[in-house]
Amino acid sequence: MITLDEAGFTFEGSEQPALADVSVEIAAGELVLVCGRSGCGKSTLLKLLNGVAPGFEEGEVAGSIRVADIDPGQVTMQELSATVGSVFQHPRSQLFSIDTVDELLFGCGNHRVDREVMLGRLDETVAAFGIEEFLDRSTFRLSGGEAQKIVCASTHMNRPSVYVLDEPSANLDDGAIDQLVEVLVALKRSGATIVVAEHRLHYLADLCDRVLYLDEGRLVAQYTGDEFRALDDDRRSTMGLRATAVEQLSADGDGDGAGDGDDVGDGDGAGEGRAASGESAPDPTADAVTVERLRCRRRRRTIVDVAGLELPKHSVIALTGPNGVGKSTFLAGLSGAMKADAVVDDGGKLSRRQRLRRSFVVMQDVHQQLFGESVLDEVLLGHDLDDEARLAQADDVLTSLGLASRRDVHPYCLSGGEKQRTAVAAALLANTRYLLFDEPTSGIDLDHMTRFGRLLQEIKGSVDLVIVATHDREFVRSCADHVVELSAGRASAPYRLR
Amino acid sequence: MTSAIEAPAGRFRLDPRTKLLLLVLMNVVVYSYGNALFIYLGVAFGALLLVVAGSLRAVAMLTATYAVLFAIDAVIGAAPGAVVELWNGLSLSFFVALPTAVYALLLVTTTTMSELAAALQKLRVPTAAMIPLLVFVRFVPAVAQDFRAITTAMRLRGATGGGNPLRAMEYVYVPLLLGLVRTGDQLTVAALTRGLGRFRTRTYLVEPRFGVVDVLAVAVMVALLVAASRA
Questions:
Q1: Which of A212, A284, A378, B15 is surrounded by the fewest CB atoms within 10 Å?
Q2: pTM exceeds 0.90
Q3: What is the interface pTM, i.e. ipTM, of the complex?
Q4: Which of B115, B160, B179 is opposite residue A368, by nearest beta carbon?
């Protein structure tokens, strides 16, 4: 179905090929997983298959590529899309229409599918994907998982023989991933050939027939599904790959080897002391922030209703729960960004204003909260650039976060991880006491995840609270000290992981 | 399920081409004649169409914006001269942009992509212009979302530009514009990989057709235009 012969691609304006010398044969009906570190070339490989490169992103194609007997370079992306269906990372920037039925029919209209055929396909697709309940709903009202399901379904409406999915799970929680698995099973059953690039592997490991492992733009290893599932943890992590089995993710497991990153930080005496004090919820002592009450409402619905929650200080607290359970709202309410009925005690009751001043929320799209002209300007935002003492302090913080060499670079030119660290640097310099992260780990590979976890451990001593809202169980297991679970707006008491 | 498919035909629906025409006519009313009475009549008519089409949120947004503008206008006289000057300049752009924005909202919030694509193709708009146009329409709500996220972030960081409004604007626009490039690219790729613009014409479930409501709506707008030109 797909034949690549020494295929490669060099983006315009770049000297180095993003992908080189890939020769591989994929049979009809196979589900192939493409994995490797960020920047290994897996997205580029997918773009060659669906014509996005060189159709949209210009550059030089090398070798030969055949997809279902078509040379993707010889036809337009639109024409190719009848044969190769694409699903991307952000479900929301792929939804085109204002209601779901129109979304599903959009592609058929483009491809001039007859009205009768269109209706027949609609029935089939709706049944295959189990999406009756979403029909005629506004696409703006869909959750992330629902949106990705609709995106997959509307790709299916074109009945392509090949599906190309680029990190489809990046923005999905566990429940939504289960839905994605259902979709993949349905597609596979229909006989389609599927190529998926992913960082989160656990949901695919059981499903895939073959695995391509890329490194620095080259195909360095190929595995059958069984061989890949048999890889041991050490081998997997030297390859920079994330967990392949669900058992490796469970947050409340025995935590083997989880404690080894704990002593990286300096001056986190309080955290260490806590670690020695043992199990169960922490005592309501001075080393905790007490959320006596936090009630947040949105559109006349109560989203978060938390009472008597003790948040231990100098500890990395993971706030978990499925998408839409109110994690972001909790952070917004706690930080004072959103008006809430809140009683928060930290050595005295805090007003919303005080909480606002003490908090810093690092958002999922970090680039939306970076306003400066350079990294230095960014971290000193609102402060006098001539203040010597402050400047020296800024340099210290930047150095400790590994950003010294990026000091004069525009924040937009930074990598995702660097942007995150810049926001953290800004928070530290603003004397932030509550450092809150909203889904910081979407679509990151093992190396970045480990590095981010280490960063949290290093800074937890310098701020009072570190809370990370996340639905990524693998991250929770590897980086968090305490876990608070949100469900239906209520929070569990924090339990220790290590 | 059948009901979901039949619904668009049964509902009150203006042809997308009519909505485009109304947008153009409203622009003429605003920019050629600039008579406040007729502009407000045009706004009221647009709001009525939005209500009938069921886009209540758009109406609420619009009403709120006008309320704020009028409120500031009423009290601004007490402020120092320079502030009044600044406000006059700023509010003028609002008072000019909002009336046409009503019709842009009508087009964007009540038209499905398939309808709009079909309408543009029937108007023989070339594919090279149609694709960016459709992406742009989808872009508007994305911009609104980004804008909200950025202003929230600014408030959280206390990034108000130290009282310098230009600085504050820069804080909003730089991340907004840079993010928009990315969103625009993603939307374009999504459209192309769904086949948008493959053929000169398309197929549809419900063919866009002019009806009585279209004639009525255009008649009202033309009457408004004629009256404005005589006034």
A1: A284
A2: no
A3: 0.79
A4: B179
